[in-house]
Amino acid sequence: MIHRLKEVRKELGLNQTDFAKYLGITQTAYSMIENGNRPLSDKYVKVICSAFHVNEKWFVTGEGGMFLDSPYEKEFMEIFNCLVPETQRFLLLMARELLKTQRKLLDADDGR
């Protein structure tokens, strides 16, 4: 996870001092985290992911993309993961129907 921390910081174009400010810590404390001398707490993982729209699953496990595609994706996934499987299937069905409707509406607008 530490190498992904550095990767996020560099992708955002921030130096250690500026990135540390977002976390509310000193550059020295941040450097110790990035170099693996101090652990990165769950609190800071949440702050980083929230402040910079970083995909928490990617940040922790390396799976998926670095950034969330939408500011709503994280909230949607949290809600989805709280649903029982039957309700998840229903929500997925509803989302597919909504997507079909959106495509039809967008196609109709393109035909004007």
UniProtKB/TrEMBL annotation:
GO MF annotations in UniProt: DNA binding
This protein's name: Transcriptional regulator
Pfam families the record matches: HTH_3
Organism of origin: Eisenbergiella tayi
Domain (HTH cro/C1-type): residue spans on this chain: 5-59
